[in-house]
Structure formats: C-alpha cells, structure tokens
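Per your request, structure below.
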C-alpha cells in the first residue's frame, strides 16, 4: 500500500505544478499591447484567384508593374464574394498570381468602400505540413525517443512564444529572461529524453554552464569592441518599442545568442553525459580520473564539429552581406570594423566558446556525480 501511495503522490504533485505553471503562463499572456499602427477596418483574409484580368508578365519572363485579378474570398466579411484586386510584382509583397492560386488579401473596409490588394501567396498549409512531416519523421525514425524529442522541441518554441516574448515586452531583461528560458527548456527537454536520471542531471549542468559561458563571452566581446544590441540593422524599428513600452532592446542580441547556442551545447552535453554513463555501466570499477580522461576524449571529438555547426550557421545567415562586401570590393579595415561583421563574429565565436567549454564542465559534473552517487 505505501508503494502505491508514492506514485500517486508523485502524479498529484506533478499535476498541481503543471496547473500552476499553466495558470501563470495564461496570466502572463494577458498583456495589453500599445497600438503602434492603426489597423481599424484592416484585416488579412484568404482567397482563391479565379481570373486574371491584366497580367504583368513580359516577353523575357520578368514581371513589371502589377496584375489585376479576380479573387473569390474564402474568409472574412466578404467571404464568398469575388473581388477585383491588384497584385504587385515586388519581391517582398504581392504574388505571381495564376488561376487557382491561394492568396492572402489585405482588405480595408470603411462603410461601402472596400480596398484590397494581394499580400502574398497563402503558405500556411505548406508551412504547417512541412513542420508536421518533420515531427512525423522524428517520431517514426527515432521511435519513443524521437517522440520525446518532438515534445521537447514543441515545448521550447512554446516557451519562447508564451514566456520569453511577454516577459521581454513587459520590460524584463532579455538576457536574464533568455537564461530562464534556456534553463527551463533544457531541464524539460533532457528530462523527456533521458528521464529523471543522473545522466540528465549532468547534461543539464553542462548545458547551462556552456550557455552562460557563451553569454559572458559575448558580453566581454561587446565591452571591448563597442558592438552592442543597439548596432543591429533594425534598430530604428526597435527604438519604437523602447520609447513606447520600455523594452530593453539592447539586450535582444545577447539573449538571441544564448537561445541560438542552446541546441549545439545541449547536444554536446547530453552526448558526453550519456557516453560517460555507459562507461560506468560497462566498467563499474573505473576510477574518476580515468572516467574524466575518457569523457574528454569523447568531448574533443565532438567540439570541433559542433563549433563548426554554430559558426557556419551564423556565417550562412550573413552570406548576403558577405557577397555585397565582396562585390563592392570594400577595404579590409572597413569590413572588419563594420557593425554587421562584428555582430556575426561575436555570435559565432561566443556560441563556439560555449560549446567548447561545456565539454570540461559536463565531464567534471559527470565524473563527480557518477563516482559519488550510488
């Protein structure tokens, strides 16, 4: 009977904690946002192109100007009606309309006046479909472990959207909020993958240490180079949030770095912790020093590839900027001292510092826990 009460108590406590967490998140998201743009009467609705009245396709295949099309609305106040509207040939807005294409229509209604334009192709089903396909592949190939990993991934994105964004919007420090999010998502994700085990404890310790090291390295780099979160390309738009809602926009760059580095650091920490656990299981008589040496050998094999992963990821997002610098043949001093290059270098190197230094942190934690705890 006492054995039966123990799991029941565990489930009750877990249910209570989950309920408290959900209530807190719901209350947190009950935020009254400052209206930055007047959207009275303006909505985004879906529709299907049923006729092309005037095309903008040229003989050389280019599109110039705008199309005039008829769209049958499938949502909103004008649902079921056919509206004549325009679609620009811009790269950011509009769409190359063809009959049957599903589009998003920007619709403004004031009395009997209706103004519409095609905003973009309707991609939501495709995006959701690809996401579901990825989660399905993760579950099918990874089995139960893959399903747990999928749950961890969903939890991570939900934490960013429903915890990180509201807290930052309310004026809390983006950096400290990112540390909180990294701690929560690391604990939950690794628990889902490894359960409540010593392996999970060691991996969580190593992950948090690596992420914090990445943040500290970025802060030191910022202090020494003068590159800050105020030097980002979209600072003009962010200043509006700073002036109206007192959002600490200067810390967004560093908080983004922590979240970006989290996946690679977590991968290294969990792999090392799991390897050292396996060594202990196969050879219970192994000494702490031998275990540490084995863990470091595993870590050295991993840190090179995972550091490359982070640096290449940040380099990949900067390819357009690098190509522009190359095409304009800018002098080296101008390139190396530009804010964009400084930010890219800071993100890549700081994240890699976190990956590299998470190795000894995880090794030391695992060696202590595995050889001290029964």
């Amino acid at each position: 009977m006492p054995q039966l009460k123990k799991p029941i108590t565990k489930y009750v406590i877990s249910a209570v904690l989950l309920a408290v967490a959900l209530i807190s998140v719901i209350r947190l998201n009950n935020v009254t946002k400052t209206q930055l743009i007047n959207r009275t009467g303006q909505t985004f609705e879906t529709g299907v192109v049923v006729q092309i009245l005037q095309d903008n396709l040229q003989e050389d295949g280019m599109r110039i100007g705008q199309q005039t099309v008829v769209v049958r609305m499938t949502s909103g106040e004008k649902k079921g009606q056919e509206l004549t509207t325009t679609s620009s040939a811009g790269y950011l807005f509009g769409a190359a309309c063809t009959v049957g294409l599903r589009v998003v229509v920007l619709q403004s209604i004031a009395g009997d006046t209706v103004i519409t334009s095609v905003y973009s192709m309707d991609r939501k089903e495709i995006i959701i479909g690809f996401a579901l396909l990825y989660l399905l592949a993760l579950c099918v190939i990874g089995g139960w472990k893959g399903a747990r990993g999928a749950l961890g991934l969903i939890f991570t994105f939900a934490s960013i959207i429903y915890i990180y964004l509201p807290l930052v919007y309310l004026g809390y420090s983006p950096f400290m909020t990112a540390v909180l999010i990294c701690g929560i998502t690391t604990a939950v994700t690794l628990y889902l993958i490894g359960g409540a085990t010593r392996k999970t404890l060691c991996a969580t310790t190593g992950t948090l240490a690596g992420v914090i090291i990445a943040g500290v390295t970025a802060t030191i780099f910022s202090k020494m180079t003068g590159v800050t979160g105020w030097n980002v390309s979209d600072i003009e738009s962010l200043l509006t949030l700073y002036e109206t809602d007192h959002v600490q926009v200067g810390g967004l760059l560093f908080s983004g770095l922590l979240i970006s580095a989290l996946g690679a650091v977590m991968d290294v920490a969990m792999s090392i912790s799991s390897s050292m656990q396996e060594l202990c299981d196969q050879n219970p008589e192994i000494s702490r020093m031998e275990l540490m040496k084995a863990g470091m050998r595993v870590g050295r094999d991993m840190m090179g590839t995972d550091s490359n992963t982070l640096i290449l990821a940040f380099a990949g997002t900067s390819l357009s900027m690098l190509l522009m610098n190359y095409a304009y043949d800018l002098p080296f001093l101008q390139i190396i001292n530009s804010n964009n290059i400084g930010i890219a270098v800071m993100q890549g190197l700081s994240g890699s510092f976190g990956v590299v230094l998470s190795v000894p942190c995880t090794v030391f934690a695992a060696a202590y826990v595995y050889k001290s705890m029964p």
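The chain has a mean pLDDT of 85.

Regards,
D.
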